[in-house]
What we know:
Radius of gyration: 21 Å
Structural class: alpha/beta
Distance between the termini: 37 Å
CATH topology of the domain at 45-179 and 270-343: Rossmann fold
Keywords: Hydrolase
GO biological process, one term: proteolysis
Organism: Flavobacterium swingsii
Strand content: 5-15%
CATH architecture of the domain at 45-179 and 270-343: 3-Layer(aba) Sandwich
CATH superfamily of the domain at 45-179 and 270-343: Alpha/Beta hydrolase fold, catalytic domain
GO molecular function, one term: peptidase activity
Order of helices and strands: HEEEEHEHEHHHHHEHEHH
Helix content: 40-55%
Strand order of the largest sheet: 1-2-4-3-5-6-7-8
Largest sheet: 8 strands, mixed
Amino acid sequence: MKIKTFLLSVFIIFLFNNCKNNQDDSVKANYLDFSKRDDQFTGGIKMIPISTPVGKFKVWTKTVGNNPTIKVLLLHGGPGLTHECFESFDGYFPNQSIEYIYYDQLGSYYSDQPNDNRLWTNERFVEEVEQVRKALKLDNTNFYLLGQSWGGILAMEYALKYQKNLKGLIISNMMASAPEYNKYAEEVLGPQLPPEVFNQIKTFEKNKDYTNPKYTELLFKYYYTEHILRKPLNEWPESINRAFKHINSNVYVFMQGPSEFGITGNATLKNWDIKSKLKTLTVPTLTIGAKYDTMDPEHMKWIANEVQNGRFLFCSNGSHLSQYDDQKNYFSGVIQFLRDVDSGDFKK
């Protein structure tokens, strides 16, 4: 009897693995087949109509690949930056047959750019993401949301309202509290700069002299290359330089403020804090923190423990753009998370 039970178990395992391998092979074979898609003519690009309280606009999306159970919508940072911050994903996701969608939020370079500050609210952006989801026919059998920096704020806010639509949530390099981010920037990161540099930067900010070329030079030379992307400026990827060139400064300053040491002035995100709400999230969640990030990696670890089904990924060599300066840790961790959730093997 024991032998029969053992043989039956082996047979079941064999069938399961064989079916899984056949499914994986089928996904890989069809990954780059656009022939049955309505966006073949445009190479995956769709301009999606968006309704807002002040009118109708269009936002730009581009889908890469086909995978019926893993579709990752990418929410870029800023606010007001572009999908170009994610172009390094081209080097990793296709090889794993992961479908992913580039997306420029309203106000960003490839989408419509209305000049109306009433549009730049968390609530309005959440409804925009929901409209994009519906247009792309994403649902909780396949829909993963990955938000980086400001995109992480948007991803958390979306999940708090619409987690029933999600299969998985990835919060990349973003804390759940603007006041705590401000404190970390002021008390931890700032003092790590050479004292004379930090004092000069603070003087520029005190005088609201944010457009001074010297202020920008100091930030890029001493702060950005340590905490945004840990490479010399002449080695920064062209995609990142392009994203900075395309930034919508009006949206950025209105929501984030002009300073890089926290969210300052009258910026709308200045007092944003959703820490007390995180425990209501049940969707499988990956949080990503980095050793040299502008965001406190310990806070990111805390978020992973605060949500009900969280996992923390630490990028030991990375900064704010870990998808560029710590790709080994970043992509292996993200891909593993997607695979684990997709297979039903996700564990905290």
